[in-house]
Amino acid sequence: MKHLIYILLFGIALNINAQNQLVIPPTIDNANINLTLQNGTHSFFNGQSTATMGANGNILGPTLILHKNSNVNINVTNNLGQPTTIHWHGLHISASNDGGPHTVIQPNTTWNPQFTVMNNASTMWYHPHLDEFTDEHVSKGLAGMIIIKDTEEAALNLPRTYGIDDIPVIIQTKDFDANYQIVNHSNSDDTVMVNATVNPQTDVPAQVVRLRLLNGSSQRVFNFGFSGNKTFYQIATDGGLKETPLVLTRLQLAPGERSEILVDLSGMQGQTLQLMSYAAEFSNGIYGATNPGMGAFMQLTNYNPNPLNGSNFNILQLNVVAQTASPITSIPNSLVTLTPLLESNSDQSRTLTLRPVTGGSQQLNGDFTINDVSLDMNTINITIPLNNTEIWTISNNSAISHPFHIHDIQYYIIEYNGSTTIPSYLQGWKDTVLVPSGQGSVKVITKFEDFADDTIPYMYHCHMLNHEDGGMMGQFVVIDSTADTNDAIIQNGFYLFPNPSNNIYMTVSLHNKNEKITAYAIINTLGQIVNYHKIHENEISNIYSFPVFEYSAGTYHIKLFTEKNIYTKKFLIK
After folding, report:
1. Which among 63, 309, 473, 499 has most CB atoms closer than 10 A?
2. Where are the beta strands (DSSP E) in 486-540?
């Protein structure tokens, strides 16, 4: 028997059967963008109303079409009745426009980020990033896709008719309670949806079709493939187009990751094809596998029973219909030329170690740290000089794989689990990568250029939102040391800027680049130590930022400890 369901999405009522018509979010293609964050309701299940959040509608948000080198002006109005933020995931923009947890949009206020689009053609997304509330807001539906266009992509023979042969595919899994309300921080996410549509289907023409895949789930990893093991072509990673299309039958995407794929449906008119997740092929230690930890003895509360875990399941049904008037019928041989950063040009190497707070068989049910610390919103974990090229090694000393995301930049993966042979689907510009469990590691190279801010930090974190909300996140600032050193090189070996200061943070930078700061102390005029901080061994550098916003106006001394020396300098807080 067919069940009739009514869905109200973006103000459009749809009368659909149990196999539900995929909703295509509307677009905004304009330099001036207005987003209103609002509460709403949505009918995921027949006759049941679920409380949701959305932008310009009840759930999800419009797809934003941005153009490289254009100037964008966005007004984000918060009508949720509670604080939130909006982070532009993947965009290379200033920290003040990034929308991290420090840029809170209070209820009934409007945030106005303005920036120039600097990224190449790619698929990005936007979502809340409020400290401890990211999972709740994203799970309730507050997220949307960003499509960036540029002239290089426009010159290629690719599908780009939005909603026809260029389809946004925002995949999420959710858990619902007995009253059909969304449960956040849940390990029982047994309902799959695309664009907020459960059991979706969509018509696609019998030609080459482009799917923009976004894993917008809180925790679940997908192993994408098509029914019948039909081949497809990966043409883009997080940061944009690859050099050549990559022929695949499987594509793994963790939360936060995006990929663009082409599937050739020529000659298939009248047939159906299922986009699936082949999770039965996952090894242990992945959220989505039969065992989310390294072995069956490691239990995750409420993870099982769940029909999705360790099973193959459908995500989206494609119904192949007649070709369009101007079909794309071939796969290009080449795409764009990429220029990876050279390891020989690296200025700094760092190691970030992911570790559970609780060891043993119960570690999956606890929180996780980065370099043995949880997020402290008042602590800058890493200070990076502007234009530094850096190599970061993310080492996973836990029993579950973690998707690791860095704000501000795109990076190249140069080692994967100790090997310089990088899985082909991970080759290209990335901003999120799944770090394998059980002593797995990923080494990346990137350059921190264009934007410096000694007031607002960027973030790096696990993109399993439950872990992020639990403190698996750190902060870094990018500092232009040449802009604030009118204090000159002082006789005892380091810069201190800005001095005097009325900023949130001050920065110390050793004149000797080979010497590293291991700890510092702040001392008042009475000789009392008002703060002492030992820097984690994996965050030691010759430059460091420290908070001063909690100190009263007056004169202080900072005492720097290095491996060999102790330096002291006086500074003033206005």
Report:
1. 473
2. 494-497, 505-510, 517-523, 529-534
